[in-house]
Write a structure and sequence with these properties.
- One of its GO terms (biological process) is amino acid catabolic process.
- Its cofactor is Mg(2+).
- Its EC number is 4.2.1.6.
- This is Galactonate dehydratase.
- GO terms for molecular function: galactonate dehydratase activity; magnesium ion binding.
- The chain is α/β, with parallel strands linked by helices.
- It folds into two domains: 3-127 and 379-387, Enolase-like, domain 1; 132-367, TIM Barrel.
- It is built from 15 helices and 13 strands.
- A hairpin with a 2-residue loop joins β11 (357-361) and β12.
- 48% of the residues are buried.
Length: 388
């Protein structure tokens, strides 16, 4: 089998009405106009001479067409290659820019979409789901949490929390950190949610890097009293020393990793004991090939893996399910239930593909066993939202 073509498709869904930042963001009033002006992603399709096409996703935070151009530019590395030579292809793609400093950001996100598509090809060719290629069912039923309770009025937050419970979730995440100077309001929001859902529901919080170290420790101590399972991204991801301080100061788990890209970046957090739960995104961290290495490295430090799906499309969510099913140190799956705009659903999440979920009951997902990623792209959605 040989690769005959590679196609990148950027999808953009403009916001019909401007929204405020649904997560903590510096200079939120100014930056939200760019960061949260649209739902976006870049899909990758890899074609072969045997008629098998693989699909992947490049996670996109900004400028999806930039990622599309990168995929198109590295196409000569792929044309004529055996799609089963995934490690070799990954090394070639990484090597093209490694000594030029592009081992984070758009370039690794572009590699991610290509890599996921190659594994999809292998699964389809062998008539196996991707998780079987990784060693099979380690986790036949995967614990999941509803993500996320966003910055909205208290009545809406509590109604969403109850909706998640009614859907069958026993765990959910709360966004905090909208105004770091008014962190006591964050604590009060979490307290109200805890009071409403009771002690049997597992709660996490996500600050999206809102605080400084001292504030994070203050907030963390209050959260410990509310039995919060983890404190996600309390400070900037580049402040490793700060994460060391927070991990030493608090008894609760500190989670992070959605803002990093390869095992080389994650290694620093492991060796410095600056992390308790790792959260890589498979469509950002170099695809399945690299994400499996990150998870294996984390297992050597006895750090569990709780994948990030965040603002990605359902293609990434589907890919993440396959890793979650196979990895021994998997902890819990981020099952996105909340869009940035409460008045405009994200069709890239809800309509682009149907997730390969066989069942969801009592907070646990059972994955389907269809070949490859087990998904079919809704080409009507692609046609409607594709941009050049």
């Amino acid at each position: 089998m040989k690769i005959t073509n590679v196609e990148a498709i950027s999808l953009v869904v403009p916001m019909e009405k401007a929204i405020k930042a649904p997560i903590s963001l510096p200079y939120a009033d100014d930056l939200a106009k760019v960061v949260f002006s649209e739902y976006r992603t870049t899909l990758v399709k890899v074609y072969t001479d045997e008629g098998i096409t693989g699909v992947g996703e490049c996670m996109v935070r900004l400028a999806p067409v930039a990622t599309k151009k990168i995929v198109e530019y590295v196409k000569p590395i792929l044309i004529g290659a055996d799609p089963f030579d995934i490690e070799l292809i990954w090394d070639k793609l990484y090597g093209a820019m490694m000594n030029r400093g592009h081992y984070k950001g758009f370039y690794i996100e572009a590699i991610s979409g290509i890599d996921v598509a190659l594994w999809d090809i292998m699964g389809k060719a062998l008539n196996m789901p991707v998780y079987k290629l990784f060693g099979g069912h380690t986790n036949k039923k995967m614990w999941s949490y509803a993500s996320s309770l966003r910055f909205r009025d208290m009545e809406t937050i509590l109604a969403d929390a109850q909706r998640f419970i009614d859907m069958g979730f026993n765990a959910m995440k709360i966004k905090i950190g909208q105004d770091p100077r008014n962190y006591k309001k964050d604590i009060e929001v979490v307290r109200e949610v805890r009071r409403a859902v009771g002690d049997k529901i597992t709660l996490m919080v996500d600050a999206n890097c809102a605080y400084d170290v001292k504030t994070a420790i203050q907030v963390g101590r209050a959260l410990e009293e509310l039995d919060i399972f983890w404190f996600e991204e309390p400070i900037s991801p580049d402040n490793i020393e700060g994460y060391e301080q927070i991990c030493k100061a608090l008894d609760m788990r500190i989670a992070l990793g959605e803002a990093d890209f390869t095992r080389f970046g994650y290694r620093q957090f492991f060796t410095r004991q600056a992390i308790d739960i790792i959260q890589p995104n498979v469509c950002r961290t170099g695809g399945f090939t690299e994400c499996r290495k990150i998870a294996a490295l984390s297992s050597t430090f006895h750090i569990p893996y709780a994948p990030h799906t965040g603002s990605s499309s359902a293609v990434c969510m589907a890919a993440t399910l396959h890793l979650a099913a196979a990895l021994p140190n998997f902890l819990i799956y981020e099952y996105m239930q909340s869009d940035w705009n409460k008045d405009q659903k994200n069709p890239l999440r809800w309509d682009l593909v149907q997730l390969p979920i066989k069942s969801f009951e009592d907070g646990y997902i059972e994955i389907d066993d269809k070949p490859g990623l087990g998904i079919e792209i809704n080409e009507d959605v692609v046609k409607r939202y594709a941009v050049e």
